[in-house]
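hey so u asked for the seq, here:
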Amino acid sequence: MSAVGANSAVIPIDDLRLRKQIQRFLVVGGSSVAVDLLAYCVLLNCVDRMTAKGLAYLAGVLIGFAGNKLWTFESRQLSFSEPILYIVVYASTLVINIAINSLVCSYLESMMLASYTAQIWGFLFATGVTTVLNFVGLKFVAFRRAQLERTSYADDRTSN
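ran it, structure tokens below
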């Protein structure tokens, strides 16, 4: 199955769906970070900093789960496994993010780069890598069944 793109090229539907999912994933991620920041700022007036950050991060994770489940990957399943797998993906990439950040910072600092500059590059590199890993993990692990159902539905429609 394919569609005609703006430049009159034929673009496979799977490529269009993937592009749409990536765009939506980035919007949901940005929204989750905004919720995290807003909740953090509000909660700082009520509770200690660590509690505020923990609750704000949790709010961002909940928004991310709902947005990615319902909008990015269009999963309509009522499933116990999806939120568990979502948490597993994000917990795994959290560990990877911390490790990459630490390695990049150590390497750049050993190259005599200023610590602050090394920290910024470490943060950006780790975030970039884990953003890709999160997308892949959600698409092929947490929301795998929804992806398989959409593919089989599309296959059924094209074979008729």
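The mean pLDDT is 88. The chain has five helices and two strands.
lmk if thats what u needed
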